[in-house]
Structures are given as structure tokens and as C-alpha cells.
Design goal:
With 136 residues, the chain is α+β, with helices and mostly antiparallel strands. It is built from three helices and four strands. The radius of gyration is 36 Å and the shape is elongated. 4% of the residues are buried.
């Protein structure tokens, strides 16, 4: 059985690894410990019949479950936000929103052109009284 078990493990190890460098397998008294070098997950692998069965270690499984729960909560919150009106981005603005926006733009433009007129008067007055300073 030990020889058959080693043969099963030898055949199963390549099947477990998609990339030959991704996993490392270390023998234990009752199976193997598999480390996923990409994610850091640790699995306990044991022979069951003629198959090698691997399960996440308890600590990794708990962390995995917590992360999965967190991600599910985030997805639910995002879906809820979308359902509550985030899709209204295609809706046209109301007349009140347009009026408010136009009022803000009108105030901005009036102030801006007032500043331009003041600057023009200042420059016209400077040109008549004394030469402008050389800024080159």
C-alpha cells in the first residue's frame, strides 16, 4: 500500500499543479502539506482511495470565508446603490436644475467680464501715463 500510495502521490502531484512552480508539497505523517506560492494558501492533502484530496487548512479557510463574506457584502452594497438610483445618470436634468446651473454660470461670466473690463481700464490708463514695465 505504501508503494501504491507513493505512486498515487507521484501521479497526483503534477495534476494538482497548473504551474510546476506554483505549489510546493511537503510530506507529513498522514499526507502532504501543499503551499500555493502565489496566494500563500496552505492545504492539507490526503489520499482517499486512489485520489489525492486537498482541503484548505483551518486558518486559511477561516480567512478565506471572512474575505468572501466581506466581498459579498461589498457587492450587495454596490448592487443596492445601483438599484437606489445610481442608474439615473441617463436621466435629463430637471428645469430647476438647469435654471440653477445657468444662474451660477451667469454670475460667473458677469464677474469674469467685469474683471476683464477693470483690467482693460487699468492697462489703458497705464499706457497713457507711463510706459508699461518690460516683462521679458
Amino acid at each position: 500500500m505504501i508503494c501504491g500510495g507513493l505512486l498515487t502521490a507521484a501521479l497526483a502531484i503534477p495534476a494538482l499543479a497548473q504551474d510546476a512552480n506554483r505549489y510546493t508539497m511537503n510530506p507529513t505523517d498522514d499526507g502532504y502539506v501543499r503551499l500555493d506560492t502565489m496566494t500563500g494558501e496552505v492545504s492539507i492533502c490526503r489520499e482517499r482511495g486512489e485520489q489525492m484530496v486537498c482541503q484548505l487548512a483551518a486558518d486559511d479557510r477561516e480567512a478565506f470565508e471572512r474575505q468572501l463574506d466581506s466581498l459579498e457584502d461589498r457587492v450587495a452594497a454596490l448592487e443596492s446603490a445601483i438599484g437606489d438610483g445610481a442608474r439615473d445618470g441617463d436621466a435629463l436634468p430637471t428645469d430647476e436644475e438647469i435654471d440653477r446651473t445657468m444662474g451660477i454660470m451667469e454670475t460667473f461670466m458677469r464677474r469674469f467680464f467685469s474683471i476683464v473690463e477693470d483690467l482693460n481700464r487699468d492697462f489703458d490708463g497705464e499706457e497713457n501715463s507711463e510706459p508699461a514695465p518690460d516683462r521679458t
